[in-house]
From TrEMBL:
<dbReference type="Pfam" id="PF00126">
    <property type="entry name" value="HTH_1"/>
</dbReference>
<dbReference type="InterPro" id="IPR036388">
    <property type="entry name" value="WH-like_DNA-bd_sf"/>
</dbReference>
<dbReference type="Pfam" id="PF03466">
    <property type="entry name" value="LysR_substrate"/>
</dbReference>
<keyword id="KW-0804">Transcription</keyword>
<dbReference type="InterPro" id="IPR058163">
    <property type="entry name" value="LysR-type_TF_proteobact-type"/>
</dbReference>
<comment type="similarity">
    <text>Belongs to the LysR transcriptional regulatory family.</text>
</comment>
<protein>
    <submittedName>
        <fullName>LysR family transcriptional regulator</fullName>
    </submittedName>
</protein>
<dbReference type="InterPro" id="IPR036390">
    <property type="entry name" value="WH_DNA-bd_sf"/>
</dbReference>
<keyword id="KW-0238">DNA-binding</keyword>
<dbReference type="InterPro" id="IPR000847">
    <property type="entry name" value="LysR_HTH_N"/>
</dbReference>
<dbReference type="InterPro" id="IPR005119">
    <property type="entry name" value="LysR_subst-bd"/>
</dbReference>
<keyword id="KW-0805">Transcription regulation</keyword>
<feature type="domain" description="HTH lysR-type">
    <location>
        <begin position="1"/>
        <end position="58"/>
    </location>
</feature>
Length: 289
């Protein structure tokens, strides 16, 4: 069986069409088609169904893809380990939540340790499909609600309620969640989520925000302007708390912990690059404790 033909078949599967695979690999479409035809003849099985809309795998083609991809990745890792003079080289494709400023510092430190690893980092509110989007590792907050990934837990993050000293002076400092719910509130809201309730473990309070956004910088701006209370991740709030531009409300009562996980596809063997990234993130987050 032709190893290079197998790699080209995997490239076509990942890209979804011969033309897209040709763009990514630089291999002419005619060569891709010929090599995959040769692979099908060698295996004596049809791997792809071709149409004007693209390609899709046959049942046998999907089976071959899932098993061959793991083998190709292992062989490529082995090749890199003996040809890179013990240096980790390659490209990592990552995903992080939007406005997650903490991770930019981590990635800078990661590339200082591994200067031969290049990084593509996708930032979006959308939960990426690790397989379809070709993402090696995604950073996710909150409950995962899926069994299709392997999760590596990191230190949980804490959220804080903050406001400007001027807002507190005008309205008074709340002593309970119920009192805080009567103040102007800026809250996080996505296109698909608009449920507003605080839960301290002993108390649940619904509230009506005066402003909502899916951008943490917007929440910070409203808080600094004295227009509303905001709930921020601790690392986002820390510089403003230290400068005195914001003060924390209900410390120890209203704090919420959010699980933080690095996830990668369950069916995909983690490469040397992925393992280095996973280990580095754990080490880096431990230093923040």
């Amino acid at each position: 069986m032709d190893f290079n033909a197998t790699k080209l078949f995997i490239a076509v599967m990942n890209a979804g069409s011969f033309s897209a695979a040709s763009d990514k690999t630089g291999v002419p479409i005619s060569t891709l088609s010929r090599k995959i035809n040769e692979l099908e003849q060698a295996l004596n099985v049809q791997l792809l169904e071709r149409s004007r809309h693209g390609v899709k795998p046959t049942y046998k083609g999907q089976q071959f893809f899932e098993q061959a991809r793991l083998g190709v990745e292992l062989l490529e890792d082995a090749q890199k380990s003996v040809t890179s003079v013990h240096k980790l080289q390659g490209k990592l494709r990552l995903s992080v939540p939007p406005n997650f400023s903490l991770w930019w510092d981590l990635l800078i430190d990661f590339q200082q340790r591994y200067p031969d690893i290049t990084v593509f980092c996708h930032s979006s509110e959308r939960i990426v499909d690790l397989f379809a989007d070709g993402v090696d590792v995604a950073l996710r907050m909150g409950d995962l609600n899926t069994d299709d990934v392997i999760a590596k837990p990191l230190a949980p993050l804490e959220t804080l309620f903050v406001a400007s000293p001027e807002l507190v002076a005008h309205h008074g400092a709340p002593e309970t969640l119920a009192e805080m719910a009567r103040l102007p509130i800026a809250a996080w809201e996505s296109l698909t989520h608009g449920f507003f309730e605080w839960d301290s473990g002993t108390e649940k309070v619904k509230y009506e925000p005066v402003f909502t956004t899916n951008n943490s910088q917007g929440l910070i701006h409203y808080a600094l302007s004295g227009k509303a209370i905001a709930q921020l991740l601790d690392f986002s709030a820390r510089p403003w708390l230290e400068s005195g531009d914001l003060v924390q409300l209900l410390p120890g009562i209203a704090a919420q912990k959010l699980p933080l996980n690095l996830v990668y596809a369950r069916h995909k063997h983690p490469s040397n690059l992925v393992r280095a990234y996973l280990d580095f993130c754990s080490e880096w987050m431990e230093k923040l404790k």
